[in-house]
Design goal:
Length: about 260
């Protein structure tokens, strides 16, 4: 915005021009950087979908795919992981005579629950399933997303493929890194947390600490108590420990009766 003013001095006319820039015209470096980053996210999402041959994705889901570029787990980039899972799923589905396009789509979207705009207290698989449902994905895709960590029941043949390929991509040598000492410490903490409860015989942290299997004595722990114990251990881990993702707690109660015929 320009303002002009003039005055006369000794017969001469002087003209002054004053330029006033509003706060909206002079955008801060932060706002400009944020705008550029958002454009890069959208472009990355579009380019990923084109590379994988995935069409008809809702713009908001495309944006979430782009956001994966800036998220990692144990040093493994989330977008690279999702691309690997997508390609593995398509290959496996083809070998099994299933639809490779649906499998690839579900593979790409299986971790979108890790990149929402907010951070709700919901497991990322369930959140991803709800987002996919919200933006019009088919049931085969949404079930595969929600079931890849066993939070819900698998109702399609695509779902176990997503789960397997997710594990393959994350577990391959060199995919992820973690300091050995902190990893061992976390595994021991998980197991000792379970062993502190009465009736627990053994506890094993498996799948790189993503699952804790707890063996209990059938004489001391009833079926009802086993359900309660699973909940109590999961809550204690949630409140007392720091860990990536989520930890599945499985309590196993087994009774064996053995006799010998001589």
């Amino acid at each position: 915005m320009t303002h002009e003013a003039q005055f006369v001095l000794g017969g001469d006319v002087f003209l002054f021009c004053v330029v006033v820039t509003s706060m909206f015209e002079n955008r801060s470096p932060f706002a400009k950087t944020r705008k550029n980053l958002e454009e890069e996210i959208i472009e990355t999402g579009k380019r990923t979908c084109i590379d994988l041959g995935i069409h008809g994705l809702h713009p908001e889901l495309t944006r979430m795919v782009g956001r994966m570029k800036y998220r990692s787990s144990y040093g493994q980039n989330l977008l690279q992981h999702s691309r690997e899972v997508a390609n593995l799923c398509a290959t496996m589905a083809s070998e099994l005579g299933l639809n490779p396009k649906v499998a690839k789509r579900a593979g790409l979207l299986h971790d979108i629950g890790k990149v929402p705009d907010d951070e709700p207290e919901v497991p990322h698989a369930i959140l991803g399933m709800k987002l996919a449902e919200k933006y019009g994905e088919k049931k085969d895709v949404t079930n595969a997303i929600g079931a890849h960590h066993d939070e819900i029941e698998m109702t399609t043949l695509i779902a176990p493929i997503i789960q397997v390929c997710d594990a393959v991509s994350g577990a391959r040598p060199g995919a992820r890194r973690e300091i050995v000492e902190s990893y061992i410490k976390r595994i021991k903490e998980l197991e000792s947390t379970a062993l502190a409860y009465p009736g627990v015989m053994k506890a094993y942290a498996i799948q790189a600490g993503r699952e804790l299997r707890v063996m209990v004595e059938s004489e001391k722990v009833s079926d009802k108590r086993a359900d309660e114990l699973s909940f109590e251990i999961s809550q204690k881990i949630q409140h007392d420990m720091t860990y990536p993702g989520q930890v599945k707690v499985t309590v196993i109660r087994e009774k064996r009766s053995v006799n010998y015929a001589k």
